[in-house]
What we know:
Blueprint: H1 3-32, E1 37-41, H2 47-54, E2 58-64, H3 70-81, E3 85-91, H4 108-122, E4 126-129, H5 143-159, E5 163-166, H6 171-184, H7 188-198, H8 228-247, E6 252-257, H9 261-275, E7 279-285, H10 291-304, E8 308-312, H11 333-344
Parallel strand pairs: 1-2, 1-8, 2-3, 3-4, 4-5, 6-7, 7-8
Helix pairs in contact: 4-5, 5-8, 6-7, 6-8, 9-10, 10-11
Amino acid sequence: MRGKPVLHRNRTRIALVALWFLAAGLANASSASTATRIGIFYSRPAAIALGRELGVHYERFGMAIFGANGAQLERIRAAEAAGFALNIQFTNVDAGDHGARPGPVTDDAAFEAALASDLDAAKPELVTIQNEEDGQDFWSGTPAEYLHELADAVQVAHAGGYRISNGGLTSMGVKLAYWHHLWLTGQRQAADNFAADTLTPELNHGLIIRGDIPDSRAPFRAVLGHNAPIRAKLARVEALIAGYPTTGVDYVNFHWYENGPEDLRAVATWLSQATHLPAICNEMGQFSDNPDTVTALLSEVVSLRLPYLFWFAPDARQGVAVGLADEDGAPRANGVAFKAFLAAHP
């Protein structure tokens, strides 16, 4: 009878040692993957040349799941042959189909087969599905329809060994959701300060948001009572954030424009905690060519150890965002700062 407790203790020791080695292995894997992969989003023929000029090893491209991707696939393969690892943003319509917005999938099997074929052809390092799914410029379906499509895509991506994220919450959307979180949890002064920093007309396409949300001086003011479209946007963002963890994605993806490192840290940390997923940003940018903005935000991204960051390199069609390069692909002042940061953080 005395032999059995000894055997039990030995098994316990073996189990503890095994757990220790497992934990050590996970820690090593984690430390090996903490470096942020920094790239650019420059969907133009000069993408490879600009990537080399700036010193990046990662680029973001787009691809249509149900479209003719011949020319785009050639550019993707050329970038991969040049040594770039790619984030590919898969949408349901051709990028050249102006005015069209991707809608919900109507045939799951067809969608899954088409996506699997595109993944085999493109072989991206990171897959993202659709773009800015909380807005209405790039997605015409509901949050539930988007989450359904994302869950389908996750199964396909994981079967092929690919990492995958959502398309990317808009900069305005994720900031609104974080402000609302602060307000609902009683952090009123923090909510006021964050709104003063981030919800100004200059940073949100001229929209009046701060005067249409409650604050410490008007705590009973309705949330966006005079702006139904933005109120609906906030509801979509919150539904998506609640639903992402159910899809099986590897990362939660958000977009970020202009606001400083403190606000970025607060939002990225909260978003990761809210979804229990590592946060990434596959579109970061600015509304000027100020080099200090680039350096400050990139420094915070590296400090946060976000797995991926892609900077918006061309000018926006609406004339709002100012890219890292001009129309000829030559780096602007912010592009020079971007290049210098990467050289100092290899």
